[in-house]
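User: I'm curious whether this sequence folds into something compact or stays loose and floppy. Could you predict its structure so I can see for myself?
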Amino acid sequence: MAIFSLLVTATPYSAQGQFSALQFVRVAINNGHSIKRVFFYADGVLVASRLNHPPSDEINLTKAWAKLAIEQDIDLVVCVTAALKRGITNHAEAERNALTGENLDPAFEISGLGQLTEAMLESDRLITFG
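Assistant: Here's the prediction. I'll summarize afterward.
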């Protein structure tokens, strides 16, 4: 079976890309494939904020990604530059950049484009959702 990695650039709640990526991962796993990593870039990083709170009749994509990552042991990686540009940060980046507070959901990690390159090299396919 194939090993996939995903590049998600879609904004979480204004487009279908995030939900489609989430569904792709579920279907791929159910069909025996594996997911190496999901790398969030550009507006896709907005899903990593633990402060996201959509209306009750909408899916909470942050929690959905977190649950799937824990259940299936999938890396959820957020581009550090894209994240900081959009106000998403963890404790280490907040300290390093003299920011007050952090809002990265614990299921996600902040890292650089090297993680995307590694995922591409260790996967059979990179699928982009934007």
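Summary: The chain has a mean pLDDT of 95. The chain has five helices and five strands.
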